């Protein structure tokens, strides 16, 4: 149970950091801080959509097109960003092609790195205990 809660926390933290880093680096990737509740919803929806899409796509591609499994992360990130921006919750705005492409790459890269690092730090003891 604690491991599952830690994983959820890691996914939420990585999503938040990915979105914030993209906001800090890119002019066309804008977090609307005045609508902070919208940004919090963006984090939750983004993390949930990305996780579900990655899992589904990996299962499908691993079975039918294993060569494409490596692109699942970036694809699920782009789709999750699209869904979050299209939802009427506010909090996140992407303008122009640069915002979409570079923003997607930055968010994907940061979320991947943060997820791996936090998982190694926070879940290291839990995996040893389960063995």
Q: How would you summarize what this structure contains?
A:
With 131 residues, the protein is mainly α.
Description:
The protein is mostly helical and 131 residues long. 78% of the residues lie in helices and 5% in strands. It has five helices and two strands. The chain has a two-stranded antiparallel ribbon with strand order 1-2. Helix 1 (2-25) crosses helix 2. The mean pLDDT is 86.
Cα gyration radius (Å): 15 Å
The tally of beta strands, per DSSP, is 2
The helical percent reads over 70%
Spell out the helices and strands N to C.
HEHHEHH
How large a portion of the residues is in β-strands, by DSSP E?
Answer: under 5%
In DSSP terms (H or I, runs of 4 or more residues), the helix count works out at 5
**So what's the overall shape?**
globular
- The assigned structural class equals mainly alpha
Going across the biggest sheet, name each strand in turn.
Answer: 1-2
Question: Topology of this protein?
Answer:
Blueprint: H1 2-25, E1 29-31, H2 36-64, H3 72-86, E2 92-94, H4 96-122, H5 124-130
Antiparallel strand pairs: 1-2
């Amino acid at each position: 149970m604690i491991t599952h809660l830690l994983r959820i926390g890691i996914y939420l933290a990585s999503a938040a950091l990915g979105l914030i880093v993209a906001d800090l680096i890119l002019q066309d990737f804008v977090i609307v801080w005045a609508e902070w509740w919208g940004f919090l919803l963006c984090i939750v929806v983004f993390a949930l959509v990305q996780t579900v899409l990655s899992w589904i796509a990996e299962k499908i591609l691993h079975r039918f097109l294993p060569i494409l499994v490596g692109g699942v992360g970036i694809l699920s990130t782009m789709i999750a960003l699209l869904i979050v921006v299209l939802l009427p919750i506010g909090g996140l705005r992407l303008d122009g092609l640069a915002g979409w492409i570079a923003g997607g790459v930055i968010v994907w890269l940061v979320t991947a790195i943060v997820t791996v690092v936090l998982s190694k730090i926070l879940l290291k003891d839990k995996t040893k205990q389960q063995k």
